[in-house]
Predict the structure.
Amino acid sequence: MSLFERFENAFMPNYGVPPVALARGEGSRVWDVDGKEYLDFIAGIATSSLGHAHPALVEAVSQQVATIAHTSNLFLHEPEVLLAERLLALLDTPARVFLANSGTEANEAAYKLALKYGRREGRSYFVAAENGFHGRTIGALSLTGKKAIRDQFGPFPVPVRFVPYGDADALKEAVTGDCIAVFLEPTQGEAGVVPPPDGYFEAAREICDSTGALLVADEIQSAIGRSGHWFAHQADGVTPDILTLAKGLGGGLPIGACVGFGDVGKLFEKGDHGSTFGGNPVSCAAALAVLDHVDLDHVRAMAARLRGGLESVRDPLLKGVRGRGLWLAAVLAEPRSAQVQQAAANAGFLVNALQPDAVRIAPPLVVTAEEVDAFVSAFPAILSEAAK
Ligand SMILES: *Cc1c(COP(=O)(O)O)cnc(C)c1O
């Protein structure tokens, strides 16, 4: 039996059967179980920031696992303290950190933190964006603006009002003095790498300030250099009340973080929240290696090269390119993203059919100019193949 059939027989059907079985990686390259080589332009959903088997990540994780792999929250350890301090230094605003294992858990922490604030003030509902994605656990799912994945698991404990993303007037109308918090991605990831119009995040900040609602920036996909900034909200010149991180932070090791700014960071009292694995020493060591080796100048240079290259491609199937930093969507004139993903894989490139008309391109942040050029030169042929 093939690995694919064995996968299908052993796993719940929630993912379907993925089309490629990966065996190993090095830098931006990966090899499947049959030895076929690919350039990885999706990086485990914008997660493998340093690519694969980066020597610094291997060293940090190996050393840490050989020293102490787990303490639980009954005991503290230096890597978690170093990591929290590093994040606070990058944020450069007084804040406090909670460490979790994943994106959805970071958002659960944000949800509970916001709820603690809201209940004190007698506030009753959240606001989030249509097509937004915040995770699969019940709290985060309740904020996720995709009916197909949310509604069958409701009703949810706290009502959520959904607004069209990018529409500041709609946001203003939805957020009243009863609103606990507004959850927004600085650029919507799963919706298709959709940046908002200029000024939207500033408007959200003002609306929250004038109503007392908290602003929660879900930067699980956008942060840690992906957008060309450590945090995408820094480019918008806005400080949220709560920030959530995960994907790129651990470079492939599972970690999530919830940061509360100012007094919001001090709302949880002893016993209010916790996680046995959250902020475990190995994931923290990985995150420290990521923070040491992400080079924003390199990200920006590669981002400009990739974007410029893709924008110069003239093909009837390619309508345009959108996104920020090394986090782009090739927008198609027809719903043929699955065909583009398949044609790219055939040509030796991994990309992601994110929406029927949007292909997500998110290489490791260490991608080289030669690798970017290789993808850009192959792209026209991939598009023509996909159009057939
Ligand atoms: C991926 C993602 C999540 C969920 O993260 P998991 O680690 O899969 O739980 C939440 N929010 C955003 C914006 C994401 O991209």
Remarks:
- The first helix runs from residue 3 to 10.
